[in-house]
Amino acid sequence: MMINLLEVKTSVLSVLSLLRTMIAMMVGGFVWVLVNNALGQPPGVMMLLPVWIAGLAGGAVCTMYSVRQGIPMAAVSGLLLALLFLWFRHVHLALPITGGALVALWPLWFPPAYYLGAYAYVLVLLRSER
Length: 130
What we know:
Number of strands: 0
Number of helices: 5
């Protein structure tokens, strides 16, 4: 039985991409927990600060794996993390969407924060090469 090396390589790269995405999501979630616990329950717009700090860290981690694939991976990681937070809050815990939209939909800021973190890290790498 012949093993097709191209299929093996493709499946290994797919698994590695999935693992990188999961690690970037875990880093973002861990940073979010740390910052959120350090700030307590910030009111209003300040509740977005943990999301942005976690997103910047997660985006930088995405770009550390691969500069070429970092920005798209950051967008996917941020989107998946936002969907996971929204699912957990509004489906699993059955919390209603009440109050302001900022309070209920704060996880939607994860994708742009991840993207900006990856883009900023790419810019830092480009400027350090000059």
